[in-house]
Specification:
The complex is a heterodimer of chains A (about 220) and B (about 280). With about 220 residues, chain A is of the alpha+beta class. Chain A contains two helices and 15 strands. Chain A is elongated, with a radius of gyration of 19 Å. Chain B folds into two domains: about 70 residues, Single Sheet (N-terminal domain of TfIIb); about 200 residues, Alpha-Beta Complex (Naphthalene 1,2-dioxygenase Alpha Subunit, Chain A, domain 1), CATH 3.90.380. Chain B contains six helices and 17 strands. The chains are: A alpha+beta (about 220), B alpha+beta (about 280).
């Protein structure tokens, strides 16, 4: 399984926890108070609770069920039911590769995360989920006009929308479910970014309309 | 044959309040059932019209779909004078019936899941207690448990250290004895009776037998419902959905002694319905 984009760095500020998925693997991604990021199997080794429901205390992620703390390395550092116990090193989460580049969080469930290289500098716009296949999202991108003009493919997964450059990074979540991370040319005005964000919504609606009809 | 074992236990399928609203279409161990009132003369059938035995105990209507049912467990306190019996309705939970029971046996989650009611930080420590399989009665018991609780019951005026005892008389039922705030020498009885709709889906019927003559019925039931809705947010997010009986799959600590005994007891009896085993 290659590295996959699972969301935007700015949507995960310090002390936040989010749920992600790569190749069917349920994942928790969280950021410590010190800004460090980690991605693990979304499961507390104690009683199987989803860690994505947990909360960050300092630089540890605490499970919602019994408050067990796990530090960045995945090792359990504190068990509230036994405050004086130093938890054995054998209690730890299952860790995955995670890295950030160009404002995008990349996760790899089998190796160190290697972000997809962009051929030019781009800024993150938004992340969204469409209830269709990856192919249907790409097809809809070719047929959803932005301000009257059709996006033109310009190689390496990039599109030209007039003078704006745009990249769609896709993470297939299932046969009919795709996470889409959208990046654009840097330095756009807020107004343009809002218009592009609305275009993303239209793209999703078009993809879902045709994807469902054609299935 | 996990279904075969499970089919010979009795399960709750209705209470008086739900039957008063009309027939109840429900499911037990994967079999669709219809329960018809009145509560004192009920009829339980499957979709083919086959009738199943019924009995009314602990304010619930119980049935079994097995050919050779074991007797329904006894809760002797139910017959003690002065106790108020409170059926608390039903909570549907998408989880293994066994995970629902195990969660009921757990105190370490109180400060995090029932914050400000059954527990609160920094009072998180679980002191050593005794958990055992009692061979004479073939039940799981946990005794000598105490825990600080900000609002132990509707009748509690403030935080108290509550004493707890747990009893597991059947794989899908658990009885809790806990300090009764207005009568510290007595113990309130709180039970959950779990109706396994399937191995991964259940209806939980909480029931109480309390020394509390002042709180109105709706408030008592509401208190218990709130607790169970908080538990549901946990129970529907555990993976695997079925309860693992292999101790290597989920790491316990000393606070989980009751859970360890419960899992061992299930394994010993072959009560695998809702459990993750080598066979499943």
């Amino acid at each position: 399984m290659p590295s996959m984009p699972v969301g935007l760095s700015r949507d995960l500020p310090p002390k936040r926890v989010m749920r992600a998925s790569v190749g069917g693997q349920d994942i928790v991604v969280w950021r410590a108070s010190n800004g460090d990021i980690a991605a693990w199997d979304n499961r507390c080794p104690h009683r199987g609770m989803a860690l994505s429901h947990g909360f960050v205390r300092g630089n540890a992620l605490a499970c919602l069920y019994h408050g067990w703390h796990y530090e960045q390395s995945g090792r359990c550092s504190y068990i509230p039911a036994h405050p004086d116990l130093d938890p054995p090193a054998t209690i730890h989460t299952t860790r995955f590769g995670v890295t950030e580049r160009d404002g995008v969080i990349w996760v790899d469930t089998t190796d160190t995360a290697k972000p997809g290289m962009l051929t030019e500098p781009l800024d993150p716009l938004r992340s969204l989920i469409a209830e269709v296949s990856e192919a249907a999202v790409e097809a809809a991108c070719h047929s959803t006009p932005f301000e009257g003009e059709m996006p033109q493919p310009s190689g390496s997964g990039l599109y030209a929308l007039g003078t704006i450059r745009l990249a769609l990074l896709t993470n297939p979540l299932g046969p009919n479910r795709t996470q889409v991370t959208v990046l654009t040319s840097p330095g756009l005005s807020l107004q343009t970014r809002l218009a592009l964000s609305r275009w993303c919504e239209t793209l999703r609606r078009n993809a879902e309309a045709t994807g469902t009809g054609g299935a | 044959m996990s279904l075969h074992y499970a089919s010979n236990d009795w399960y709750p399928v209705a209470d008086a309040a739900c039957l008063a609203r009309g027939p109840r279409k429900t499911r037990l161990l994967g079999t669709d059932l219809e329960v018809l009132g009145p509560f004192d003369h009920p009829v339980v059938t499957d979709m083919g019209g086959r009738c199943f035995p019924v009995q009314v105990r602990y304010n619930h209507l119980w049935t079994t779909i097995g050919d050779d049912p074991r007797p329904l467990f006894d809760i002797p306190e139910a017959d003690e004078p002065g106790r108020r019996h409170v059926p608390c309705g039903v909570v549907r939970v998408k989880c293994s019936p066994l995970r629902a029971v195990e969660n009921f046996l757990d105190i370490a989650h109180f400060p995090f899941v029932h914050t400000g009611i059954l527990g609160a930080e920094p009072h998180t420590e679980v002191a050593a207690y005794k958990a055992e399989i009692r061979e004479d009665v073939d039940e799981v018991w946990a005794t000598n448990i105490s825990f600080y609780q900000p609002q132990a019951a509707k009748s509690a005026a403030g935080g108290i250290t509550t004493r707890y005892e747990y009893r597991v008389p059947a794989p899908t039922a658990a009885v809790l004895y806990k300090t009764c705030p207005p009568r510290p020498e007595a113990m309130d009885v709180i039970a959950i009776f779990v109706q396994p709709r399937s191995e991964t889906d259940c209806d939980v019927w909480p029931w109480m037998a309390l020394y509390d003559d002042t709180t109105n019925f709706a408030d008592l039931a509401q208190f218990q419902q709130e607790i169970f809705l908080q538990d549901r947010s946990i129970l529907e997010n555990q993976r695997p959905v079925k309860l693992p009986l292999d101790p290597k799959l989920e790491i316990p600590t000393r606070a989980d002694m009751t859970s360890i005994a419960y899992r061992r007891w299930l394994k010993r009896r072959g009560a695998y319905y809702g459990a993750l085993t080598d066979q499943t």
